[in-house]
């Protein structure tokens, strides 16, 4: 069930609360008054996807009813209906009012701020209507801490959902101290249990003191200590050293729970999208195709797109390349390719200019490697569904930190070399990296390591951790 709110100024909060409350009462009757949890996602499908998987697991594995509050921007996304349709009974989605704010920092963080009245009414309605149990917890993602001020008013403990890894969480928790104590960050930044972090590997927002984005980030991370606990989309084998440090409980920090990798066991089916790329993969030999996807937000220069194309062609490697998200909106993705490239490579590869079913591609037997921007969701999906080695090509946000984990700590990825002063990686370096990953010794070793990491992710430790969290919620309500 999805409840939509259509206007930031003229929306019917009573209808919103009534709809959520009706679901809560039905959940209480149908499931004997089981626990109910509210979740709040800030703007961005990359934030919503793992949070929705957490909701799914709470409902299916632990008998918890969930109300998932989603930003209006996400609810209008073409991916949203597919995601919501895949949610099980016991999970309800509520679309919050649309924000009139603009700009990257505002879009992610301030959307929730202007939605606080709606969030408060939803929580109050749920708290009053659930039969047999009180609302057990509110889970907000890492840009949703403005909602913490609602916690005391409605009597619901707040938990932080951190969709990235312990490396970034450690940087976030240490950032207020570093900000107050240092006029500028040390280079490298050394965090307990983590790799040394050089200035250029820091997220751009952390490098940009004094900007609006930095101030918003700092405001949020200062509030992290107010959470009852932090649920992290990672697992011990992925970050063993950092996990050990966090298990020792730093005074003043909330307890940290590793509940990842939050990747669906079965990818949701989108019957509205063509699967021609999957049909093409069916015709390819096992492990023969390099899958290339650098996310939907990063942008490559025309010259870099051309160099990547030439590098792929020179490697002689079969490939499936999702190109649509790499150029600006007013550019034709195919127009950025070298003349004749598609014709020359039509027997070896396919280029997609729109959405691709990534989970189904990664798990396909024909895929043998993944050139990735190192977004944390993509990394987790590769480990869980793909079990293939990676070429790390970080573009923005914390992706350089993720690449350090993959390349330096885990050895499940390699990086391209030969970047020029203009920032462009040349075709020779790209070709060499592709050949090494798919046919070389480093690629073979990385493939073995990622399979071992996959096995560790399946061992069930994260499921036990989530069971402990649910048990703690129950004990506080009894």
Quick structural overview:
The protein is of the alpha/beta class and 478 residues long.
What does this structure look like?
The protein is α/β, with parallel strands linked by helices and 478 residues long. It has two domains: 2-265 and 459-477, Rossmann fold (3-Layer(aba) Sandwich), CATH 3.40.50.2000; 276-457, Glycogen Phosphorylase B (Rossmann fold), CATH 3.40.50.2000. 46% of the residues lie in helices and 13% in strands. The chain contains 20 helices and 14 strands. It has helices spanning 13-30, 45-62, 72-75, 78-85, 104-114, 116-129, 148-154, 166-181, 204-207, 212-223, 240-247, 276-282, 302-315, 341-344, 358-362, 376-386, 399-410, 427-439, 441-457, 461-477; strands at 2-3, 36-40, 65-70, 91-95, 135-141, 158-162, 230-232, 256-258, 289-293, 318-322, 349-352, 367-372, 390-392, 413-415. It has an eight-stranded parallel sheet, with helices on both faces. It has a six-stranded parallel sheet with strand order 11-10-9-12-13-14, with helices on both faces. Strand 13 (390-392), helix 17 (399-410) and strand 14 form a beta-alpha-beta unit. Helix 18 packs across helix 19 (441-457). The longest helix has 18 residues, at 13-30.
